[in-house]
Design a protein that fits this description.
145 residues; 7% strand; 7 helices; two-stranded antiparallel sheet; mainly alpha
Length: 145
């Protein structure tokens, strides 16, 4: 992912770019935020097996064509649409919109529940192989006695 950033006024559309350091209420978004959001929206929709028509039918003001524009990264969804999509797709709006890099723990738990036993075993082995996070408390194991 491209880590080049531009400054976008939070109160205007993402196309209004400001380079002034004196502007207030600014948000930083990656240059490719529309494509990132589109990929996440499409992946979340496909993960739960919904079509664009089905999703658009549950969001006022959203057509399948408009949803397609969001998913292709040609348009960025406005906040009200993003919040509605997050409720349907069961992912945080900040994650779908490309503002947060981590899906919620709830979303990960839902994916875990849908895994077969082989997938769960693989995930457990990967988790056990990882070093503890910096500053994490060591796991206390009970004696076998």
């Amino acid at each position: 992912m491209n880590n080049t950033y531009r400054v976008v006024k939070a109160t205007t559309s993402p196309q209004n770019v400001s380079t002034s350091p004196h502007d207030t209420c600014l948000k930083f978004r990656p240059m490719d935020y529309k494509k990132l959001a589109g990929k996440r929206i499409k992946a979340a929709r496909e993960a739960i097996g919904l079509t664009q028509v089905a999703v658009a039918g549950h969001v006022p003001g959203l057509t399948p064509s408009r949803l397609g524009n969001f998913e292709q990264g040609t348009r960025y969804p406005p906040p009200d649409i993003l919040v509605a999509l997050s409720k349907i797709l069961k992912e945080p709006a900040s994650y779908l919109g490309g503002l947060d890099d981590d899906p919620s723990l709830e979303a990960l738990a839902r994916k875990y529940v849908r895994m077969d036993s082989r997938g769960k075993d693989t995930l457990h082995r990967v988790a056990e192989s990882q070093p503890p996070a910096y500053g994490a408390q060591p796991e206390i194991k009970k004696d076998a006695s």
